[in-house]
Amino acid sequence: MAAKVTVVNNGPIRIEGEFTIQDSEGNSFGLGGRSTISLCRCGLAENKPFCDGTHGRSGFNSQCKARDLPPPKPKLTPAV
Ligand code: FES
């Protein structure tokens, strides 16, 4: 199953399906066989990048409605 990413209102980003999570050096987090994980969006989790529920106690407020983004800007090619 392709990964599904859900931005939870007032909460984390939930990922379900087949996915891996890597750090900036390309090392994978061991997810203990989980097929669903929530990533912190409020910035307050003790166990970043994973959500630990702190958003609920802190009153994190962020409602995100789906919308279309504009096309990406063309990349400049270096002059030869
Ligand atoms: S979104 Fe849950 S602790 Fe940050």
Give structural attributes.
single chain; mainly beta; Ribosomal Protein L9, domain 1; three-stranded antiparallel sheet; 15% strand; binds FE2/S2 (inorganic) cluster
Please tell me about this protein's structure.
With 80 residues, the protein is mainly beta. The chain has a single domain, classed as 3-Layer(aba) Sandwich (Ribosomal Protein L9, domain 1), CATH 3.40.5. Helices cover 6% and strands 15% of the residues. It is built from one helix and three strands, in the order E-E-E-H. The protein has one helix at 54-58, and strands at residues 4-7, 13-16, 36-39. It has a three-stranded antiparallel beta sheet, with no helix packed on it. Strand 1 (4-7) and strand 2 (13-16) form a beta hairpin. The chain is extended and about 55 Å long. The mean pLDDT is 96. Bound molecules: FE2/S2 (inorganic) cluster (FES).
